[in-house]
Design brief:
single chain, about 25% strand, about 15% helix, globular, alpha+beta, ten-stranded antiparallel sheet
Amino acid sequence: MREMVDSSQGRTEVLAAAFFARAADRVARDLIGARLAVRRPDGVVERHLVFETEAYLGAHDLACHGARGRTARNAVMFGPAGRWYVYLCYGLHWMLNIVTGPEGVPAAVLLRGVGSHEGPGRLTRALGVDRTFDGRPATRSGGLWLEAAGSPVPRRLVRRTPRIGVGYAGAWAEKPLRYVVDPAELLMMKGPVARRAPVRRRS
């Protein structure tokens, strides 16, 4: 599932802040089939197809970190949209989220599965994502960004289920705000994976 190409070729569209300045559930659905791109320390850019996301809608969503108000930990969630919100879960795993919605609303989408990495903790560990990305814009200059899916993934392939690990949220634990597609079907739809290629550094 991993795709690594020369980012200087300009063949992909980076998703701009306006894409994320929408309701988290819409963003979560539209990110299925998009690519998460990360620039490694050696300059190589890796691109990974997104196959699993979860939406957290705002302060009224009892599973959302913003449900109890603004804190030092969750301040990034309150906007602006298009920035990374990275936090440590259970003192073990970094969780990668993209902030969504209008400024002042604590909403975000959790990336749960990309490429061959299933599970948010495995994802961040494999890609070298940690708290240093918290608050960074999702842009090439920030070293971690999202690129357009191109053709949308058909609705029939995308399953909606309750979110994982939010049993404390009462009725909100049952909301179908997790979006997932079979990685194998996604790869077949998106075509062959490109080979690894070094990035030509710009002066």
